[in-house]
Fold this sequence. Notes:
The protein has a single domain, classed as ABC transporter transmembrane region fold (Up-down Bundle), CATH 1.20.1560.10. It starts with a helix and ends with a strand. A hairpin with a 6-residue loop joins β1 and β2 (162-169). The chain has helices at 2-14, 16-21, 25-77, 85-126; strands at 149-155, 162-169. α1 (2-14) runs antiparallel to α3 and α3 (25-77) runs antiparallel to α4. By secondary structure, the protein is mainly α. A two-stranded antiparallel ribbon has the order 1-2.
Amino acid sequence: MLSDLTTNAQESYSGIRVIKSFVQEKAMLGFFKKNSEAYRDNALSLAKTEAIYFPSMALLIGLSTLITIMVGSLDVINQVEGASVGGIAEFVMYIQMLTFPVSAIGWTASMTQRAATSQRRINEFLHTEPGIKNETEPVKTPLQGNITLTHVDFVYPHTGIHALKIFRCR
């Protein structure tokens, strides 16, 4: 979606003279609005998903820590063999060490999806066949005739740079 929006903006800026000469400003603005609204909807959907995912992960991690402490405490109170306060603390520390890797799974999945989209676009560009192909064995055609150039002049209109100026050439 972001790639479509970026492409649309880039093409519009590159071809602004064509758009203006064919009086297509409103049509292109409508097209851009449609693309930007689609991107916005997708971004909001992602934000809602992340707003649910990350707090849920924090809640589940907190609950697992709480349940571990409660069960361990009951075992220590009931004097279950092998249960100790140090063992509970150690287990809680292990849970805390696993917190970030588990919660990072969602973030990694999101980044992987974005990278896959970017890679698809790059592959599309890399696999595009050029419209003009170079001949492997070009045909050599001998040139014949007389060419005379007189008063040939070319200046780039927007820069004023003289590209060509010939008074007489044979």
